Fold this protein.
Amino acid sequence: MKPMTAVSPQPVPDRVAIITHPALAAAPAEAERISASLRQAGLGCVLWGPYSDQKLRQRVASGGFDLLIALGGDGTMLRTGHLAAPLGIPVLGVNLGRFGFLMELQPEQWDERLPDLLAGRYWLEERMLLTAGHVRGEEWIGRWDVINDVVVTRGQYVRPIGLEVRVDGQLLARYVADGLIAATPTGSSAYALAAGGPILPPELRNILIVPVAPHLSLDRAVILSEGASVSIQPFSEHEVVFSVDGQAAVHLQPGDRVQVVHNPASVRFVRFQDRGYFYRNITKYMEQNPAAGDFNDSGNANH
């Protein structure tokens, strides 16, 4: 990064990668516009590409950048966060999606915030990560960083599954449900919220356990103490799968379990707004859910 001046509270980025959603038609032109502004401002290295670009991903993993810009929606923010978090690289979100709850800027705000970025006038919000493990016997056969949630759920058969949940080795509950969510505070406003869980402020470092459609089981969310370890083991005869942050499902064999533990790394989001932004956004998105469309009084969508 460029040297900080005495008045700069944060480092000034010099090497920036813009990560786009490959299916968004507006993304290439917007990425070019942002890239041109950054180059004109004198940054040493600016590249952009979709998160499916393996060469760009490898360059990020090699430590070639000191800021990533996620250009898309919340899904793009999550994928970019997965690239950035292990390296401690900050992520700035520019929204091109429908929801954009995690994003910091709208496209029309980029130019006005560029001087603040290049003067170090921003703050870094550090959000908790989890580690999810696919465990068979005593061996971890898969491991994932988690920004939002781990969801253990039924597979192809439309029937409840049985899940035994242990916290720090002690039995919490045996659920019969459609599934179970283990979420970070970031994930508490995603699927966990839709399943009836509480909203946790982003600075907390607790795991949230939320059952999905429980049947004659514990039907309340449980907030675990910081640093807790969670084991989720199916006891159903039919198919059970799990997914991390909405990625491809992983099939569990009989006897397998999902282990969810604290991750020492954090994902770092660039923020220009004051620290009360989270509560303002919650109110805004609850009152005008952009994912639901615009409905008139008869329940029909206005287009």
